Amino acid sequence: MKGILLIGFLVPLFAASTVPRSIRIEPRDRVLHGEGAVQQLLVIGSYADGSDRDLTSEATWKLSDTDLATIEASGKLGARKNGLVTVVASVAGRTTRTSLRIEDVEAAREFQFSRDIGGIFTRQGCNGSGCHGGVKGRGGFKLSPGVLNPKDDYEWIVKGGGYQVLTAEVKGARVPRIDVKDPAKSLILLKPTGAVAHGGGKRFAIGSPDYNTILKWVADGAPYGPEGGRENKVVKLEVFPSIVTLERDGQHRLLITARLADGRTEDFSDQALCSVNDKTVVSVSGCTVKAGRMGETSVLVRAAGLAASATVGVIGPPLAAYPNPPESNFIDKFVFEKLRRFRIPPSALSSDEEFLRRVCLDLTGTLPPQERVREFLASKDPTKRSRLIDVLIASPEFVDYWTYRFDDLFRVGVFPNGINIKWSQMYADWIRDSIASGKPYDQMARERIAAQGYDGPTRHYLPYDVIGPAGETMAEEFRVFFGRRLDCAQCHNHPYEAWSQDQFWGLAAFFSRVFKMGDTGAEYVVFDHPTDEAMGNGDVNGSIKLYHPRTKVEVKPALLDGTVVESTGRDNPRKVLADWMVSHPYFAEAAANRIWSYMLGRGLVDPVDDFRSTNPPSHPELLERLASEFRGHKYDLRYLIRTIALSRTYQLSGRPLDANREDRTNYSHASPHALDAEVMLDAISAVTGIPEVFTTGISEAVKDSGQAPAGTRAITVRQPDLYYSRFLDIYGRPNRLTLPERNGKANLNEALHMLAGAAYQEKLGAAGGRLRKMLDQGRSDDQVIQEFYLAAYARLPEHDESEAIRKLIASRGNHEEALRDFVWALLCSREFSENH
Amino acid sequence: MMIRTAMIAAILALAPGLCQGAAEASPEPKITSVYPCGAQIGRTYEATVRGRNLKGARSLWFPKPGVRARVLNVASPDATTDLLRVEFTVDRAAAVGPHTFRVFTADGVSNAVEFAVTTAVPILEGTPDQPVARFPISIEGRIEKPGGVNTYPIAVAAGQTLTLEVHSGFRGFDPSIAIAEQSGSWFDPQRVNRVAFNDEPLYFPGLSTDARLVHRFERAGKYLVQVGSFSGQGNPDYVYELRMTPGVTPPPVLHPHWQDLWEERQFTRAMGSNWIADIANRGAGGTIPKAAETFRAVKEGNSTVPVMTPPGVVEGRIEQPGEAHVIQVKVDKAQDLALEIETPEATMPRFNPVVRLTESNGNEIVTDVYTKLNNNGLYMMKMIQAKTVFSLAAPGVYTLQIRDITTDRGGNGFAYRVLVRPQIPHIGKVTCAEDHLNLQPGATKTLTVTLEREEEFSGVVALSAENLPAGVTALPAMEKPLDRPPLPNGGRLERYTPKPQISSLLLIASPDAPVSGEPVVVRITARPVVNGHLGEPIPVADVPVAVIARRPS
Q1: Of the candidates B135, B141, B101, B133, which has an alpha carbon nearest to the alpha carbon of residue B117?
Q2: Does residue A697 carry a pLDDT above 60?
Q3: Which positions 311-340 of B are in contact with A (Cβ < 8 Å)?
Q4: CB of B173 within 8 Å of any CB in chain A?
Q5: Which of A159, A187, A733, B355 lies at a CB distance of 3.0 to 4.6 Å from B368, suitable for a disulfide?
């Protein structure tokens, strides 16, 4: 029966087709503007297996009117006259056509330093982070990465001088890097052509197009072009296609399109620098990617100070049959679509046992009790999974667990919250109340970011009982709520991202007025210092104004896009910031990604707080949709968690297939991930039936201090720095002095603790524990084995497992010790210590 | 090397003896708690006082009338604990509220322990067998061990509201209270789920950490009231009284608890109609300044701003978040002024009034925000103060602005009273460091008195100790120098802090001083002397003093 069902789910998949089902030209409906406008065209073939391939190199081209344009064999179209030109491409006996409008060819193309000169630096790698675009520049010559700050670049070239990281002062004499009188003697040409020693080697030849462009620019007097607002800036880079699948020997050209401030588009395919994260998967030449080994990587595209990326996958051989699993919700559509495109089959649906254990741990951090396991496995209700999800989400354990999750993320602790247990408890209570009452996540964020006064969320502004530095505070809010790391930009423009130092300090300025009232360490009230009132100090400016560390100029609070938020004197600028943050697309996508990561073990962007162009999401459309759904449901965390849990993707088996075993990023099967230290300790306590005792001493020797009430679970211990636990420390409980990062990697200490630690040794046969009770009740070995399997693994043992264990127990002289060893072995197994 | 080793050995050998000797030299009685810690009016009951050195206890000593006690016996369960069994009798006339008592033994009078005299409600000790269904009720309990939680089942009707209060009977015990129900969960049918919780209404220095929880029960049924210790400590001294009262009892006033008889630098002191006269009386009399007139400020931005002249009290209420009130202050000559702020309802940390006096060009002349740098000079510390003194160099019309320090707080309780008055040199707070004294014949002990000179009070201060036990005399002693100079980054300290001064009174028991039959309350007073004129006595402290039998040396 199962076989028939399985066959029903399988659909025949065509063997790798050599003949396209259809072909098309990309891009379509494009308008070329101005003198010398060009557009690279691609011919894309669509095949029966659903894949697309770049057939440009095989295409022949024709134009409807060669007076209007020219076209090269490579597919590069050049504008000659205004009008509508039709392009016809032929491949393998098929033809396709598209029309492009040409406008304003009589309009001379306005020179722009950033585009025309800066573009060369980008394309030649001069302003990359490994060269002059690095933090310190190179050889005293600094360029902004990817022409992020063209005005600065212009100054360094035209006026000369050495760059310094920490100050805006120019190092050394200002000797121009151009020679207007004798342009060919310009350093900016002598170095890259190798005419004088150049650490970066020869970048282009004398007489090459790039050389000539720079030479002409210098000869023309090195103009900058339109200034400031008149500059038609590139506001966005787009890559086509954003996801590329390559056969083992395939290649694909990427089209790079710049969107300009006036709404026009321009082909930047020749002006962008493309680089690849994993060169073993694909190599890149210009912006053409060529397949290497099977796998997936991202290609980063930089131009005009912006970055974009494409995901490129080298796919395996075609499968004889590809499963067609049903979709539970939109998540599956996106995940399965990509799996199909990458020819990775999804694993089967998880067994009830797998699902039950997984969903209980993910939603409540709690192992299902054995009677519930039996009940669930016995149930024939086709809706039992969704019903269970609803039960779990409504359970008090759900509140415990997600409170713990946010305790971690929001850093509840004695030291992080003013070195005051009461304050950390106030903060913790605010989190718990928020989770328990289903407070929308945007409201939680608002309350935390804009917190004033003497209540729970204000306490996170008092690490070590001082107001944290504005830069650090901002970077944390940004990382928590936007999933992005701006920290690098504190000292210099971010080397890999389009984050500038100005942006960093502009955002930091929202926190520069955060003050605490109080001087005894016990009564701090958080407030925003007015800008126009001294409030007791003569030099109010020195206290609340923020100065750019390089330029020493006062920084006003400014949003990412540079919008300055002027103070009205007495106000809380963080309210403006909070409103802006929660309405920004980053907010919902970061939250959705974080929750996804908690449940699937890996973020769509991973690590979850490292969104950047060089670390693009594995499923951008899915992330966008999850974020959109989250927004649409008023930032309801329960809705998001439920939606993910209901998807078939979440419910796929952790048993990999041969064809998806290597997949780490596409969710073709559940990937096991280590239980968090707290969840693990609770699980051990639950299986052994011996609760953990948490004391407030700084070591186990101090037993006569405070103690958490009997039965307190590790996930409900709110302050990790108050309640000592050797187990939790060894298994990676973070102290929350900084944003917690749990890597779940095993270490030697864990191995030693398994052998000798109290959590493993003292609980096994302890009085009142599960094993002791069963022995006292005279239970058979089979019963003991079954009950512990259910308690630890949420499943019954396989027949051969039972047999082997029975034999092992029988072979030991000391029966009770043998059973203890059996329980110990269960607790030490990966099946127990991982969620799978 | 040998010598050095021997010396260390000798020191180590000697050390325990020294310590023991020191401990034996002071076998003063010390008490830590009494159980039960609630005393019901009109009731006689047995109680246990925990402490040390209670053997030979003669009596319990109550400073307030209405409560008596009879010593029954003393037991010593271990080397460091004595249990004194006593019989308490609470008269019907006893005042409801906090009382204290001390134990008097042959070795003197002990420290004080507080207990509460309560109205006539049923009292239970220990955990009742059946759910409590009749309210009000008081339950006496204690958290015996670390991690302990005492659970009391109750039965309530749908819609019933209860006020639950836990009053700690031990200084170090910070109780918490929760309502729970055994509603179970999918994981554990027996799971006890928390319905409501409170630690204390507001955690802030000076406020009680007693727990209070008001809860309306939507559903009828059985619930569990849980009493624990906030951070999980517990020992037999952790005694408490749990009161369960139907309805909502008056909430506690969230004003800091005053330790001393006189406070003029607290936002919550009441500046009544005689306030200026009260202050003047602490400065050896002379001409009493006129009483303050009352004014009302208007919202900032109002086209018409009223004018006040000192002395005057500005009264108002910050109704809306971000609201600021202004009034003009007309001063007809250069003078030294004081700015005093009272928050009669909500106070710190809920309402944190910022008061600023500015010139017409907006320059700030003075504010109640005391600003200084921290010790390493890195952080600006700001603290609002209930009193600020300053000098106005010129006559003119100034603007007084009043607001909350935050931009998002305000409301009904945000009432203020700001007094602007001429400075009146006077004695401020006067305190005595000693809680009690036990003197052996022929011995001396010191009473340390700290007084604060307010508003440049420069007169002499006479100290006296009255009602000394027979054979005991008091002599003035040289004052101690101040320990620490002001910090270099201390900001404009003179505006916000009085000048402290420490003096001593030496109590001398003559060699033939008779042993006290019971403690004697010695009253310490201070009297300002200005220009040869002796002012009214200012009570400082009542200190129980006992002459005890000489111990063999």
Answers
A1: B101
A2: yes
A3: 322, 324
A4: no
A5: B355
